[in-house]
Amino acid sequence: MKKTLAAALAAALTIGAASTTFAAANPFSDVPRDHWAYDAVTQLAADGVVEGYGDGTFRGDRNITRYEMAQMVAKAMAKGDMSASDRALVDRLAAEFADELNNLGVRVSNLERNADMVKWNGKLRYTYTSNRHDVTHSKVNNDALLFRLEPSAEVNSHWHVKARLDATTNMKNDSGSNGSDTVTLKRAYAQGDYTNFQVKLGKIGLSSPESKVHPGSGNLLTDEGAKFSGAEVTFGNKLQATVQAGRYAFGGNKYNGTINPFASGDTSNYQSIDLKYMSSKWSFGAGYFHLGSENFKGAVIPGHPYKKDGNDAKDANIWRVFAGYRFDKNSALGGSYANNAKADNFDNAYTVEYDYKGAKASDKGSWGAYVAYRKLGAFAAIAPTTDGAGYNQKGIEVGFDYVPFKNVVLKAKYFNGKDMYVPAGSDDKAQNLFGRVEFLF
After folding, report:
1. Contact (CB, 8 A) for 419 and 258
2. What is the pLDDT of residues 263-290, one digit of tens each?
3. Which of 24, 107, 246, 423 keeps 20 to 30 A from 261, CA to CA?
4. C-alpha distance from residue 313 to each of 44, 254, 262, 301 (Å)
5. If you ran DSSP here, which 8-state letter would residue 113 be given?
């Protein structure tokens, strides 16, 4: 009897131990092909954080085991110098493959699988501008302080919810931009990421595609804070197409002391489509941008109403092209052109820019500089974010940025050129000075 009971207990313990073992993830089982870890490691490989397989590549075209994935994560954990976003990815991967890392002898310090469900990034930014216009014999100085928070919450392996919250105060008057220091919701959207496909739904950031190819060139059509309410779909790899549709609200009525003819507080229908191709050396793109509103009939620059063939226009049909070439890791040349087919005057805008190096917030001591010629016709460049040149101005712009400490970025820009809308015989000279310091977290 005792022998029978002992045998039964031994069998039960053996089965229990085996059940526990089989319940845990098999380190040699394949990571499912649609697992978020593939996208994470691909991003880390592109940023140079992981080396993938021993030959320095990450072959995302075949499944890999959890053990192989843990090996790559372990190597990434050993690297100390990486961006905050890459560090967050590594931490998340370490939590996911904690068991395999422990088996490899890699210590994971109390990481919980869901500890990073919500992440917060942000910045504190001080900006100084000084704008001079000889036509009005005016000089306008402004200094503003902005505090920004950008939360990102994980919904599942493919979807995240993201937002942007801004609060701005005028340092001179010690008051908010609208008389109060209230926090404003600038963006709020759901983002789904799949292989060569991305979708965004909600209040989304709006930017020209050329800024994503050569960030120093800025946005020719829309400013850094521009957003619209609607949907965006992007698909493709090296050749990408982006389609946007929704409602777009114009912002304030000034930019660098110059007149923004469309800024009437109006909201218009908005649709756009962009195509872009990127390689290690070349980048090309083209796009179409449509806005429609009855209030466009009242848009005017002194002496120049918004008309087409002498008739009131209620649409803006803007097409654009851009191209860029990277000579080496330090220098690049880029340019973009836009034309509004619904305008009789100030209907085109273009910029040509040479960039050298570039400041990287995570790299102390890094710096960059550029020189550009810009012409920003106000009925084509509806909300540019070049920071130096403003609406309906043309001339030369130079800029410099520097990282004195990690995640602290200094920027300076200077524009010297002309206002394009001055009355005949008036002095059209204009100068703009721009300075900024950003503390990123």
Report:
1. yes
2. 555 688 999 999 999 888 898 999 999 9
3. 246
4. 49, 22, 12, 14
5. T
